[in-house]
C-alpha cells in the first residue's frame, strides 16, 4: 500500500533539493522524491534545519516578516562569513505553509517522464562550439524544424535526440525553446566538397561547355528562369566567349535540368553532361577572385547560386547559402544597389537592371530567412527597392513579367510577418 506523508512532517522532513526550492517534498514509498526524480538529481537529507528558539516572554509580539527600507541590514563579522551552502534553510522555514499536490499530479508526472524523459541534470552541460565529430546550426523559429515541436522529443541525459546522421541538441527549455541541429562529420565533408576551392579543378570553361552549347544554355535560362527571377538584361545577354567565368558557370549549372527542352542539347549532353559539381566549383572560385572588386555580374552570380537547387538533397547547404546571401548584401551595398536609381543619370537599361537585382536580393533575404529560421539581413530603413513596377518588368517586347509582380506583393506580406515575430 502506498505510503503518503504530509509535507514538513517531524519524522520525515523534506530533502535538501525541496528545501532549497521551498517546494513540497513528496515521497511515494522511499526516496527519491518526485521532484528529484524529475530533475535527475540525488535525493539527499544532509542539511540540518535550524530550529527557531521559543521566545522567553510569551507576551512578546511575533517578529515582522515584511521588510522595510528602514530595517537595518545584518552585520557580517570578518571571521564569520555568510553560509555558503545553497541548501541553507530559511530561518522561518518551519512556519511556512505549502500547498498539497493536486490529486492527478503524481500520475501526470509519471506520464511525462515516461514519454519525454528527465531533464538534463545540473552540472552536465556539454560544449556546443568545440565538437570533434559534428557541427552545430541553430534551429530557427520559422525553419523546417519547429522548436516548439522539437521540445517534445524524448531527449537523453545529454539533452540530445539522435536520428540517422543528425542530432537535435536542446540548450534551453523555457517559454521559447532553443535547439541546435548537429551534423555528423561525413555530412560536413560532403557539404564542404560542394564549395571546395580545389587546385585540381579545371579552369577552362570552354573545354567543358563549348560556346555553341553555352549559347543554347543561356537561351534556356531566359526561357525558364528569367520570367520568374529577372537576373539578366534581355537586351544584353551574356556572351559565352567573353562573359565572366563565374556568371557563365552559374548559368550552365542552374539550367542543366532543362537541357531536355533543347533539340541539340538533349542529344549532345545526354550521355556526357558537364559535371554540376565542377561548374559550381568553377563559379565559386571565380566569384571569390572578384570579391575585392565586385561588379554587377558578381551580384548576378550570387543570386543564381542562391536560386540553384542543391546537387545532393541530403546535404545541408543552408549555412553556405546564408553566408553567400550575406556576401551578396555586402556587395550590393558596395555597388549602391540598396539605393533607388530611378532619378540617376544612367542609361535606362542599367537603371532597370539595378532595380531588378536590388529587388531580387531583398526577396531572397526574406524568403531564405523564413526558410532557415534566421533574422533578416535587410532592413526597410536602408533598402529602398522592395517592389518593382511594370516598367521594370518589360520583357524585351514580350509583355510584362507577371510572376514578379505577384511575388513582390507576397514578399511584402512575408516581411511584415517576420518583422512582427
UniProtKB/TrEMBL annotation:
What InterPro entries does this protein map onto? Carb_Metab_Trans_Reg (IPR050797), XnlR_reg_dom (IPR007219), Zn2-C6_fun-type_DNA-bd_sf (IPR036864), Zn2Cys6_DnaBD (IPR001138)
Chain positions covered by the region annotation Disordered: 44-63, 77-97
Q: What is this protein's name? A: Fungal-specific transcription factor domain-containing protein
Keyword Cell cycle listed? no
Please tell me whether the keyword Isomerase is annotated for this protein. no
The signal peptide stretch is none
Source organism's superkingdom?
Answer: Eukaryota
PROSITE patterns referenced in this protein's UniProt entry, alphabetically:
ZN2_CY6_FUNGAL_1 (PS00463), ZN2_CY6_FUNGAL_2 (PS50048)
Where does the record place a coiled coil? none
